[in-house]
Amino acid sequence: MQVIHISESEYELSAIRAQGAGGQNVNKVSSAIHLRFDIQASSLSDWLKQRLLHLKDNRINADGVLIIKAQQYRTQEANKKDAIQRLHEIVNAANHVKPTRYATRPTYGSKLRRLETKSQRGHLKQLRGKIAGE
Asked: How is the beta sheet containing 11-16 ordered, strand by strand?
């Protein structure tokens, strides 16, 4: 699996005001970042575009645009780095394909242990019968 890097020209960053408590600057400083990545217009392979569009993710809208909102940090630069890193994580996770699992046979020892416990259980049940001679 190769790591995919997305160029800066393929996504759009815009600064917005962060939500929640934050003190005096929360209503004045635009420190949160909206990252918009148009999946259809990107230079990714068609296979990867389809994988991204079929993700069950609320951040992908009906037009095929992935929107990431980063407001965890106090500075705009840190939020930009966080948004770009999250974009790369989503794309690289969609690029990862799990290897197919092939069915394996049980080992000889596990078969013997299974049969031995079955015979022990059967013998125990045989002992539950009525006692002869009464």
From this structure: 11-16, 32-38, 65-70
Token couple for 25: 């600057």
User: What is the helix (H) or strand (E) element at residue 108, kind and residue range?
Assistant: helix 108-126
> Do the bridges between strand 11-16 and strand 65-70 make them parallel or antiparallel, or are there none, so unpaired?
unpaired
HSE value, Cβ hemisphere, 13 Å, CA-based, for 44: 26
Q: Which amino acid is at 84?
A: I
Token pair belonging to 106: 């049980």
One-letter amino acid at 102 equals Y
Distance CA 108, CA 124 (A): 25
| Angle at the Cα of 130 from the Cα atoms of 128 and 133, rounded to 5 degrees | 140
What residues are paired with 67 via a beta bridge?
36
**Bridge partner residues of 38 (DSSP):** 65
Q: Give the residue with greater pLDDT, 17 vs 115.
A: 115
Q: Position of tokens 């160029």? A: 7
pLDDT digits (tens, 9 = 90+) for 28-67: 677 788 888 888 778 788 888 888 888 888 888 888 788 8
Residues ≥6 apart with Cβ < 8 Å to 22:
none
